[in-house]
Amino acid sequence: MVNLLILASLGLCYLILRPILVYFKDEKNLRRFPAPSIAGFTNLWSANNFRKGRRSLEVHKAHQRLGPVIRIQPEHISFNLPAAVTDIYGFSTKVQKDPFYDTFTGNEYTSIVGTRSREEHARKRKYVSNA
Q1: Dihedral of CA 3/4/5/6: which sign?
Q2: In the chain, what are the helix, strand and coil shares in percent, each to the nearest 5?
Q3: C-alpha 41: how far from its chain's center?
Q4: What are 67's strand-pairing partners?
């Protein structure tokens, strides 16, 4: 019984302390961007708003309060700048699509939008370029 209590205590400490340590370690220098409430520490802010069906609205409100670039998850930045579109999605950009895009693709087929590989995307783009 005591071992189970110790294990539960260690698990609770991990759940509480890990997000704080990751926040302060900040390997990607994302802490410089403002974040609504606890969004810089944990995915709970985003997950809770998604569960309520209000994620887009709450992200929009956060942009109105905090500015055009905000941190909505520990490793997720949201941009509300028209000029950022070409930097993020433009031709020859260095930005790579997140593994999140794999959610929309099956193992058999990936669309031109969901393709994460630059080579595969270029090959598929040739098919639709004349249209």
Answers
A1: positive
A2: 50, 5, 40
A3: 13
A4: none
Mean predicted lDDT score pLDDT of the chain: 83
Query: pTM for this one?
Result: 0.66
Question: Quick one: tokens of 131?
Answer: 């249209």
Decide if 12 contacts 4 (C-beta within 8 A).
Answer: no
User: Which of 113, 84, 90 lies closest to 100 in space, CA to CA?
Assistant: 113
Distance CA 32, CA 27 (A): 12
Q: How many CB atoms lie within 10 A of CB 27?
A: 7
3-class DSSP assignment, residue 10: helix
In terms of Cβ atoms closer than 10 Å to its own Cβ (0-12, 13-18, 19+), residue 113 is exposed
Rg (CA), the chain: 19
User: 80-102: per-residue pLDDT in tens?
Assistant: 998 888 887 777 777 777 777 77
Whole-angstrom CA distances from 33 to 78, 115, 120, 129 are 10, 28, 33, 37
